[in-house]
Amino acid sequence: MTEAIVLQSTNVRKVYGTRQNMQEVLKGIDLKVREGEFVGIMGPSGAGKTTLLNVLATIDRASEGSIRIAGTEIATMRDRELSTFRREQLGFIFQDYNLLDTLTAKENILLPISLSKVSKQEAESRFKNIADILGITDLANQYPHQLSGGQKQRTAAARALINNPSMIFADEPTGALDSKSASSLLETLERVNRENEVTIMMVTHDPLASSYCSRVVFLRDGQIYSELYRGEETRQQFFQEILKVQAMLGGETVDSI
Amino acid sequence: MTLFDLVLRNMKKNVKHYYLYFFALIFSVALYFVFASLQFDTTVAERTALSGSMTSGFKAANILLIIIAGIFIIYANSIFLTRRSKEIGLYQLIGLTKNAVAKMLIIENVLLSFGALIVGILTGTVVSRLFLLLLLKVVGIQETVQLQFSMDALKSTLLVFTIIIVITSIQMIRKVYKKTLIQLFKADQATEIVKEPKGIIAAILAMSGIGLIVFGYWLSGHMLNQFLLLNMLLVLFATIFGSYLIFRVSIGWLLGRIRRMKKGHMSLKDSLSIAPLMHRMKGNAQSLTIITTLSAMAMTMIAISYSLFYSNEEVTRQLLPNDFQFSEETSAFIGSIEQLKQFEERLTAEQIDYERAAVHAYPIELSLKEAEVNEMVREDLTAHVVSTEDLRYLGYDWNDDYTALHYSMLYWAFKDTKMPVDVELSDGEKLIIHEFSGDNIFNLTSFEANLVVSPEQYERLKRYQSGEESPVRYAISIPNKQLEEAQRIFEEVVEDEVLRHSTYYEKYQSMRQSSGLMIFIAGFLGLVFLISTGSILYFKQMTEAEQEKQSYKTLRQLGFSTQELLSGIRRKQLFVFGLPLLIGLLHSWFAVQSANIIFMTDVTIPTLIAMAVYSLIYLSFAVLTMGYYKQVVKQSM
Questions:
Q1: Mean pLDDT of the B397-422 span
Q2: How far is CA A228 from CA A2, A48, A49, in A?
Q3: Which residues contact B230 (CB under 8 A, 6 or more apart)?
Q4: Counting runs of H as helices and runs of E as strands, what totals does chain B give?
Q5: How near does any CA of chain A get to the CA of B286, in Å?
Q6: What's the rounded mean pLDDT across residues B163-179?
Q7: Which domain of life is it from (chain A) (predicted)?
Q8: pLDDT in tens, A74-109
Q9: For chain B, what are the domain ranges?
């Protein structure tokens, strides 16, 4: 692991509520993500998974601590700069797809680069390339309501990839999918990660989903509890290990598939 | 917690959504009450020469008011019900019976509506005096008049609005009983199924929408024949149905074409304007058509009455160029020489400045049979020749061969004639006419055609004189600010009732009163139209903003800033508000043009002023919705 560090968080804290009634959701997270990693974030409900993802992804602000993405300190950036940063450097995949109903799949996918200086030809070729990888070329002119859940999530993934982001954040991307679509999507993400060397961070509560990752970080009560590296293990072996840690963590029951 | 507590909680929670509706409701009630009071009150009518037209004017205004208030309230209510569908469903889901839910909604409705009714009537009572003062001002009466609280007005207001409340309650009952739970939960869901108007049929419909409107406009300029009523109905149908097609198909179709040309490469602005506009046109077509039609009606009404008001002085002067007129040959408009002497003595005694002009005229025969004028006036004509020398006091002054034919009775037929025109004199010689005018030379002698010529021409044409010279007519001109006094003196000198009231001053006053009344009614009705249409659009946009909230959240997460989103939304709003306004403006422009024959003056300026004021107030609603969108976008993440 000699690659460059894409994301580095130091002592990130997040506090909600008023002075009288404070709730510390993140209690000092130190995390490094290297280029080309596929990191899964797991943990029981209320462990702060989504909060961590939102804070790292600049959607939410940390109360304290430093976050550097691609060499830029984002904790001190102003809102406007953050927006531009998100648009140019990051990609997002959400549990409920969050596609715009009034746009076709292609329009949805091309949306993030609509404000950038990417030429039309370049945009077209990027679209073709990505749509090909994700197998949605034929769906380009369909509207979201005409697509299945899996197709929608692939469209969302394509949208996340279109701006060649430094990093992709995925929040429970398989949460609303049936098992077949879920594993198909995860396989695609794994392939994109491996072949295109896209760095991905994915929050999930599903051990099967996180078994596609190269590393899994376990959170409990706002702190990092442990980490697992997949190394040379098969996915099946890695899955068993994740289950063990999850059993120790308690809280959440394992989803049977 | 009782049902009533729940009602109160609901109302508290919804107050943000309701306040504009509540305000519009109060405004309609108050105005209805005021108009009804003025309609039933006779004190004002007695002081003006308008008793008949005033009562009927307010009556007509009230009927219009009922219609617009009815449409507005029922429409707004259905929007609110759709918004609250989920809530209605939820109450049923947690075990409230349909009966209880309906009861709850109706209590809410009754509380809100009767609240508005009471506040509206109270406001109406308070402001009716103000209205009265304003009315007296526009009709030009300086007396103070007391307005009594009118029981009749109260009764009629209560009756009308109770009926409207009953109708809205029925709407609610239907909503609760006829809709299944799943329909209720889905009613609120973001966008309708997206369906682009495609193919040849859509293209034909899109074109025919535009075609119908163009046809309507064309017909509106060619209505004056024996099928006038049929033509008017056709114009109405063509423009209204045309507008509907434009909103329902044409716009979506055009946007669809633009969009397809982009081949998926839409800018953020397009994504926030073209795309949602296209997909919402179907659902919005009806309301946008209503808004367009109402706006067009209101603007036409205001523009016409304002034009009449605006051109009062000019029009009266066209009919009655002289302040007072006397001659040996008296008529309903002309006093005797005896009266002239007395009048002049009195004027001098009371130190009122005046100017006397003696105007001579003799008749000649003109033949227009061969002239290139409207077929209807290709006949022989007796015209009385008048020299500009005599008419200097009216501002006519030329020495060359310029010739103007003044004939107010048939002016409409000459209006479009290409000048100059050759006419024939009795010996076959040609006379060139350089100008046709509708302005009278003498007071209301509209049956007399006058040929205004230079002094030299006056002498030259004498050889064609066909009858006795007219008796000399004496015109008395008085400076404007002394006109009222002069009128008083005139009435002392003259006993004849008709003659007394046929002076310029009297006619001007009565014109001013009737057109003042018109502008008063049209102005306030227009304001109700404006507030209703503006509110409907505002409510619709509020709902749309809520439905789009998730999209805004997504876009912000993807890294678009609030400002970038708002600039796209601004463009959408420009369409939503601008299109009905623009089409409404066009409609009313052509409506005013087609009503042109009732005006004797150019009404472009007053029409433009009226339209500008209307548009300005209307667009303030757009600003209001932008404020709401801003809030939604900001809070979305």
A1: 80
A2: 18, 18, 16
A3: none
A4: 20, 10
A5: 20
A6: 91
A7: Bacteria
A8: 988 888 889 889 988 899 999 888 999 889 999 999
A9: 322-498
Q: How far apart are CA B229 and CA B241, in angstroms?
A: 18
The structure tokens listed for B128 are 């009716």
**Which of A104, A62, A57 has its CA nearest to residue A202?**
A57
The residues in B 269-298 lying below 8 A from A, measured between CB atoms, are 271, 275-276, 278-279
Residue percentage of chain A with pLDDT more than 90? 63
The first and second tokens of residue A231, run together, are 């190394």
Evaluate the CA torsion angle B393, B399, B404, B405 in order and state its sign: positive
Mutate to test the interface with A, among B554, B555, B569 (most CBs of A within 10 A): B554
Per-residue pLDDT at B445 = 58
Nearest Cα neighbor of B540 from B87, B80, B11 is B80
Q: Please tell me the distance in Å from B522's CA to the nearest CA on chain A.
A: 42
Of the pLDDT bands very low, low, confident and very high (cuts 50, 70, 90), residue A224 is very high
CB-based contacts of B90: which residues, under 8 Å, 6+ apart? none
The alpha carbon of A82 is separated from its chain's Cα centroid by a whole number of angstroms, namely 17
Q: Is the pLDDT of residue B174 over 80?
A: yes
Q: Which domains does chain A have, with CATH numbers?
A: 5-249 (3.40.50.300)
The band of B47, judged by pLDDT with boundaries at 50, 70 and 90, is low
pTM to 2 decimal places: 0.80
Q: Which among B344, B361, B360 has a CA at the least distance from the CA of B352?
A: B344
Query: How far does B625 lie from chain A, in Å, by closest CA?
Result: 21
- For B156-171, the DSSP string reads HHHHHHHHHHHHHHHH
Inform me whether the pLDDT recorded for B314 exceeds 70. Answer: yes
How many CA atoms are closer than 13 Å to the CA of B455, on its beta-carbon side? Answer: 7
Residue B578 pLDDT > 90: yes
Residue B545 pLDDT greater than 60, yes or no: yes
Is there a contact between A100 and B279 if contact means CB atoms under 8 Å apart? Answer: no
ipTM comes to 0.88
Chain B residues closer than 8 Å to A99 by CB = 554
What is the rounded CA–CA span in Å between residue A68 and residue A12? 11
Contacts of A57 by beta carbon, 8 Å cutoff, 6+ apart:
A86, A90, A92, A169
* Closest chain B CA to residue A161: B558
Cβ-contact B324, B476 below 8 angstroms:
yes
Name the most confidently modeled range: B364-378, B491-505, B551-565: B551-565
pLDDT > 70 fraction of chain B, expressed in percent and rounded: 94
Q: Looking at the complex, does the CB of residue B258 fall below 8 Å from at least one CB of chain A?
A: no
Does residue A23 sit in helix, strand or coil? strand
The residue count of chain A comes to: 257
Average confidence (pLDDT) over B93-113: 89
Find which of A101, A106, A141 to mutate to test the B interface (most B CBs within 10 Å of its CB): A101
Distance between CA atoms of residues B464 and B460, nearest Å: 9
Residue B388 has pLDDT above 80, yes or no: yes
Q: How far is residue B384's CA from residue B364's CA, in Å, rounded to a whole number?
A: 6
Helices (H), chain A: 49-56, 79-89, 105-110, 120-134, 149-161, 179-195, 207-210, 235-249
pLDDT confidence of residue A32: 94
Q: Which of B551, B557, B564 sits opposite A100 (nearest CB)?
A: B551
A interface toward B at CB cutoff 8 Å? 59, 79-80, 82-88, 90, 92, 94, 98-104, 106-107, 110-112, 114-115, 120, 123-124, 127, 140-141, 143, 145, 159
pLDDT at B346: 86
Lowest-confidence segment of A92-106, A177-191, B136-150, B256-270 by average pLDDT: B136-150
- Contact map slice: B 421-440 vs A, CB within 8 A: none
User: Between residues 322 and 361 of chain B, which touch chain A (CB distance below 8 Å)?
Assistant: none
